[in-house]
Amino acid sequence: QIGGIGTVPVGRVETGIIKPGMIVTFAPANITTEVKSVEMHHESLEQASPGDNVGFNVKNVSVKELRRGYVASDSKNNPARGSQDFFAQVIVLNHPGQISNGYTPVLDCHTAHIACKFAEIKEKCDRRTGKTTEAEPKFIKSGDAATITLVPSKPLCVGAFSDFPPLGRFAVRDMRQTVAVGVIKSVNFKDPTAGKVTKAAEKAGKKK
């Protein structure tokens, strides 16, 4: 919150560009608004590119409506959405015990930290070739690679690694350490419920 200006989310541009006048949607909350200005190091930019750490001013959105881990994207071009569940290849690095269905550690994915349940361990596979070595294993342990369906405990925005690499990688944290890493193969997106569309977004939409 910046006095006299309003709400200024801060983040890194991962893919594409962001520029003033763009209508963006924040996922997974599905809030749509207009970008009024974009700045980096206190200088206004006409547009920002991947790798830029920027602040961007948005109209009619309060700080309370946004959270760390939300993803802003172009509302007109396949915007990011919250996920119902996702399918990933996971490699267990360092876990003292056995991991079975129902295990619910915290996932660090881009800037989000959200508990996700290992709903179904589908198959164990060879780390090098990717070939299945065991279907529906009872458990996996350190050194194993497996394909798993994960279900987030709270709204979470992720993507397939092949579409958006920054949204498609995660670390699995438990017992204060990284116990596994994963790459997302596919996402079962939530149907976007009618979210908030600000007056600024409606006005800008009419102008075009």
TrEMBL record:
It comes from the Eukaryota. Transmembrane segments: none annotated. Signal peptide: none annotated. It is found in: Cytoplasm. Residues 86-185 form the GTP-eEF1A C-terminal domain. InterPro entries: EFTu-like_2, GTP-eEF1A_C, Transl_B-barrel_sf, Transl_elong_EF1A/Init_IF2_C. The keyword Chloroplast does not apply. Residues 6-71 form the Translation elongation factor EFTu-like domain. GO terms for cellular component: cytoplasm. This is Translation elongation factor-1 alpha. It comes from Artemia franciscana. The gene is EF-1alpha.
